[in-house]
Structures are given as structure tokens and as C-alpha cells.
């Protein structure tokens, strides 16, 4: 097993670039941290390129690392790579994968300009749990492979197609396929329970502060809202997405 001691090693510098969006886009790879995420990555065919273990950390016997380069690193290197305060000392460099989600899916969740990585990861995890077919990350939405997104999603990004796209171009394609598109906003809409769920649909949730943009809302078939019974102005977007996704799923 190869051993790297210094955080100034060129290989380590390349790994550290994967903590930035630019580095991930240039290499079409990303890095996951922690036993759970690495284990989920190892379950996917042709995904993990390198497995990185801090000295003293042992790989679980149940992990299949056949054909994967394994590298042991010092604690110094582990701290340089970590995006958590207390790292578990295990990382994996993974390949980004393309998806043909539009052609194969019937139910969609579209994200319009979401900025909080924790919200996005939670939404991905909830969407996968609720059985959504595909997620589309619109313009202005934080990168899927942001470490905080990955950590919040807890590996759910491995289990469903997630693509990047221009929602103003994707929505007309969905409508041409006969898929109703629902926007979300507190004004000019219907209470979500008045809409009968269908086998195919696309649901849009928007930016934490400004919501779904007016341009995107104008392209939808219907705007939905969730009634607020207390004095709060709105729900957290991840909570709202969960309510709507499970309503549509359970009503089918």
C-alpha cells in the first residue's frame, strides 16, 4: 500500500482541489469522507478510484476494494483533506456520472437556485426516500458534490439520477411529455391538498430567501402552497419539499 506523509505532496494537492467546485468540474471527480459514505460509494460499480485511509484506521472486512488503489496517509494529510472537525480518517475519490434522467423518469423534483448545502442534501435524501425518480439542479443551485451536500444526503445521491440543467429549458420538455409541472409559492396558488396526485409530475422548490423565480413560476401548470397556521412567514424549504413529496407519493 502506498504511503503519503506530507500534506504538500502533489497527490494531496490534487485531492484538496476536489474540495472546490472548480477542481471537481475540471477532473469530473469528487471526494467523500467517512465510513458510511465510503461504504455506499464502494457498493456502486466503477465509482471509487482511490481509497484513502489515515494511518491507524482499518478498513472493514466487508468492504470490497478489488481493483481500487488504496493509499495510506498521515494524520497531517487526513486533517488537510477533512471537511469535518473530527474526521473518521477514511476518504474515497469517486467518478462523477452522467444520467439520462429526463428520458427515463416520470416523477421529478426541480431545485431553483437553492444555496444552503445542508438543505440540498436533506432534500436529496428525502426525495430518494419518497421514491422520486430524478432530481434536476437548476441554475444557481449549489454543486451536488459539495462536501456538505454529500454529508447531508448520506449517500442518497448514489441511488437516483441527479442532473444539472436550465429549468427554463427542461420544463417545456417535461410538459411536452405530458408531465404536469407544479411550482411552489405562497401567493397566487392553490393549497397543495386540493390537487390530486398523479403518476407523473414535476415539483419545483426554490431559493431559501426568494423562493422559485417569477420566470420559472410562469412556466408551470399550477402553483401550490402549504398553509401556515402559526406566525412564521414560511417553512424551511427542505421541510416543505418533504411534505409535498410524500403527499404526491401517498396520494398516487
UniProtKB/TrEMBL annotation:
InterPro entries per the record?
A: Alpha/beta_knot_MTases, MRM3-like_sub_bind, Ribosomal_eL30-like_sf, rRNA_Methyltransferase, SpoU_MeTrfase, SpoU_subst-bd, tRNA_m1G_MTases_N
Q: Superkingdom of this entry's organism?
A: Bacteria
Q: Which residues form a coiled coil?
A: none
Q: Which residues form the RNA 2-O ribose methyltransferase substrate binding domain?
A: 31-100
Q: Can you provide one Gene Ontology molecular function annotated for this UniProt record?
A: methyltransferase activity
Q: What is this protein called?
A: RNA methyltransferase
Q: Which Pfam families match?
A: MRM3-like_sub_bind, SpoU_methylase
* Presence of the UniProt keyword Methyltransferase in the record: yes
| Family statement drawn from the similarity comment of this UniProt entry | Belongs to the class IV-like SAM-binding methyltransferase superfamily. RNA methyltransferase TrmH family.
Q: Does the keyword Methyltransferase apply?
A: yes
**Species annotation:** Rossellomorea oryzaecorticis
Mind telling me which residue stretches traverse the membrane in this protein? none
Q: Which UniProt keywords apply?
A: Methyltransferase, Transferase
Q: Which GO terms describe its biological process?
A: methylation
Amino acid at each position: 500500500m502506498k504511503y503519503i506523509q506530507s500534506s504538500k505532496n502533489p497527490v494531496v494537492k490534487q485531492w484538496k482541489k476536489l474540495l472546490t467546485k472548480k477542481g471537481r468540474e475540471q477532473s469530473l471527480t469528487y471526494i467523500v469522507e467517512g465510513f458510511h459514505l465510503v461504504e455506499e460509494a464502494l457498493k456502486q460499480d466503477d465509482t471509487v478510484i482511490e481509497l484513502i485511509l489515515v494511518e491507524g484506521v482499518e478498513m472493514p472486512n466487508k468492504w470490497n476494494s478489488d481493483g481500487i488503489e488504496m493509499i495510506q496517509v498521515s494524520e497531517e494529510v487526513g486533517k488537510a483533506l477533512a471537511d469535518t472537525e473530527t474526521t473518521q480518517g477514511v476518504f474515497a475519490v469517486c467518478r462523477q456520472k452522467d444520467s439520462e434522467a429526463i428520458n427515463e423518469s416520470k416523477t421529478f423534483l426541480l431545485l431553483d437556485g437553492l444555496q444552503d448545502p445542508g438543505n440540498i442534501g436533506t432534500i436529496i435524501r428525502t426525495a430518494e426516500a419518497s421514491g422520486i425518480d430524478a432530481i434536476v439542479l437548476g441554475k444557481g443551485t449549489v454543486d451536488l458534490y459539495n462536501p456538505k451536500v454529500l454529508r447531508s444526503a448520506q449517500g442518497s445521491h448514489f441511488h437516483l439520477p441527479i442532473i444539472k440543467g436550465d429549468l427554463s429549458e427542461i420544463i417545456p420538455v417535461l410538459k411536452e411529455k405530458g408531465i404536469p409541472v407544479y411550482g411552489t409559492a405562497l401567493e397566487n396558488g392553490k393549497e397543495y391538498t386540493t390537487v390530486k396526485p398523479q403518476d407523473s409530475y414535476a415539483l419545483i422548490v426554490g431559493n431559501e430567501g426568494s423562493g422559485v423565480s417569477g420566470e420559472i413560476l410562469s412556466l408551470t401548470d399550477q402553483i401550490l402552497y402549504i398553509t401556515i397556521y402559526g406566525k412564521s412567514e414560511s417553512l424551511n424549504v427542505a421541510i416543505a419539499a418533504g411534505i409535498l413529496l410524500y403527499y404526491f407519493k401517498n396520494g398516487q
